[in-house]
Amino acid sequence: MSTLKIHHIGYLVKKIGKAKQSFETLGYQVEQDTVYDDIRKVDICFLIKDGYRVELISPVSADSVVSGLLKKYKNAPYHICYEADDPEAAYLELTGNGFAAIDTPTPAPALGGRNVVFLTSPVAGMIELLY
Ligand code: NI
User: Fold this and answer.
1) Distance 40 CA to ligand 1 centre (A)
2) Cα distance between residue 119 and residue 109, in whole Å
3) d(C-alpha 39, C-alpha 51), whole Å
4) How remote is the CA of residue 89 from the centroid of ligand 1, in Å?
5) Taking phi first (over 0 means left), then psi (-120 to 50 degrees means alpha), and beta for anything else, what does residue 91 get?
6) Distance between Cα 59 and ligand 1 center (Å)
7) Cβ neighbours of residue 4 under 8 Å, at least 6 residues apart?
8) Cα–ligand 1 centroid distance for 8 (angstroms)
9) Is the separation of the CB atoms in 86 and 65 below 8 Å?
10) What is this structure's pTM?
11) What tens digit of pLDDT does each residue of 31-61 get?
12) Contact 2, 83 (CB under 8 A)
């Protein structure tokens, strides 16, 4: 098994500016200020607290990939992102063990253009695999 390391927790928010301020009140520090992801039509920023990295994600338009999820979940965490030492092997192992890819590996502008792919499991929910 390729070793998976938690990279961040993805957290949906309606208003990213105000959410960022609230997370700062909780003691988080901004690691990377808001970046627009034009592929997914979302604003993204990263904050850190106690070694935990949280990714705030907010839809910029109604046809964003997360607009439907935001309606369903409101402001809430919705995925854990894993970084693999061997992403290709991890992808094969995950898809062979109950995880189904819901998109294809696509560059993430907020992560320096590294590829990410989202997968879901009927028993473990949504994850993100970082290449
Ligand atoms: Ni993420």
Assistant:
1) 12
2) 19
3) 28
4) 20
5) alpha
6) 13
7) 82, 83, 84, 90
8) 6
9) no
10) 0.94
11) 999 999 998 999 999 999 999 999 999 999 9
12) no
